[in-house]
Design goal:
- The chain is α+β, with helices and mostly antiparallel strands and about 130 residues long.
- It is built from 3 helices and 6 strands; from the N terminus they run E-E-E-H-H-E-E-E-H.
- A 6-stranded antiparallel β-sheet has the order 1-2-3-6-5-4.
- A hairpin with a 4-residue loop joins strand 1 and strand 2 (about 15-25).
- The longest helix has 21 residues, at about 110-130.
């Protein structure tokens, strides 16, 4: 199964937010998202004993995924709930004597309204791309 992970950064007046979006090209309804603000990250960091700071977290995820191509001692693991409302995305690494979960993110399925907006955005993007190449 081929999945795409996109990490967007937004800066509001009060707080920075990273949004982790996971999608599957073959299934436009397969879209899961996790908005992560500093306050949420502090809880996640405490729960999972993470050592990187909030601003470095997306880069650490991207670097881990990029390094998968060169390493046989790491992999990604995903699981979906029976009702398809949650997708658990895990980064797994091999230690000297066992496999460990480096970080686990729980992404939520988009609501119906958010999914419609996402699909409209995809259609518009495809139209722009087709105009550029015609």
């Amino acid at each position: 199964m081929s999945l795409t992970l996109r990490i967007d950064e937004r800066q509001s007046k009060s707080e920075k937010e990273f949004t982790f979006n996971l999608s599957k090209e073959e299934d436009p309804r397969f879209v899961y998202s996790l908005p992560l603000r500093r306050s949420n990250y502090d809880s996640l960091r405490h729960e999972q004993d993470l050592v990187c700071d909030f601003d470095s977290f997306p880069k650490m995820i991207a670097d881990f995924i990029r390094d998968l191509q060169r390493s046989s001692s790491s992999y990604l693991k995903g699981s979906i709930t029976d009702d398809k409302s949650l997708f658990r995305f895990e980064l797994i690494a091999k230690m000297d004597f066992k496999w460990v979960c480096v970080v686990s993110l729980c992404l939520h399925a988009l609501s119906d309204a958010a999914l419609v907006i996402h699909l409209v955005d995809r259609v518009l993007l495809l139209k722009v791309i087709s105009l550029l190449f015609t």
